[in-house]
């Protein structure tokens, strides 16, 4: 049992990261790509700027990630008009990307079930809410 938040978070993160990396490697994904696939599976055709925001990365970082994903045939980008009449780039899953995103979702659900084994639905919700509050508090500076 840890007596400091940073130790508890780092311990949980390390265990989760190790298991996640194994899953991502099996699917041929690099860091950052799983989050993009997961988000696009729920909202295909997002404007690149919005996708960067949802992923918590800068637009240049997302551009680099998407370039690699395009080379792998996972996503495609299309220019389109945005609501404010500016040109925007929308990001779509390819058929291959959708297949991998579907497998990814199943594997992420399995990992989540392992992580929350022995917790009630109420405890699970409370943990997630607590972690979100911690993140908000730390970001406030």
* Residue windows where pLDDT falls under 50 for at least 5 positions: none
Order of adjacent strands in the largest pleated sheet: 1-3-2
Helix-residue proportion: 55-70%
Shape: globular
Find the count of extended strands (DSSP E, 2+ residues).
3
In N-to-C order, the SSE pattern is HHEHHEEHH
- How many domains make up the coordinates? 1
Separate helix tally: 6
**Separation, N- and C-terminal Cα atoms:** 27 Å
Question: Nearest-angstrom radius of gyration?
Answer: 17 Å
Q: Looking at CATH, which topology would you report?
A: Arc Repressor Mutant, subunit A
The overall pLDDT average reads 93
CATH superfamily: Winged helix-like DNA-binding domain superfamily/Winged helix DNA-binding domain
User: Any guess at the CATH architecture?
Assistant: Orthogonal Bundle
Q: Which structural class should the secondary elements be placed in? A: mainly alpha
Largest sheet data:
3 strands, antiparallel
Report the sheet-strand fraction: 5-15%
CATH structural class? Mainly Alpha
Question: Short description, anyone?
Answer:
The protein is mainly α and 141 residues long. It has helices at 5-26, 33-42, 48-55, 59-71, 95-115, 121-140, and strands spanning 46-47, 75-81, 87-93.
Give a written overview of the molecule.
This protein is mainly alpha-helical. It has one domain (5-140): Winged helix-like DNA-binding domain superfamily/Winged helix DNA-binding domain (Arc Repressor Mutant, subunit A). The chain has helices at residues 5-26, 33-42, 48-55, 59-71, 95-115, 121-140; strands at 46-47, 75-81, 87-93. Strands 1-3-2 form a 3-stranded antiparallel sheet. β2 and β3 form a beta hairpin. The protein is globular. The two termini are 27 Å apart. 16% of the residues are buried.
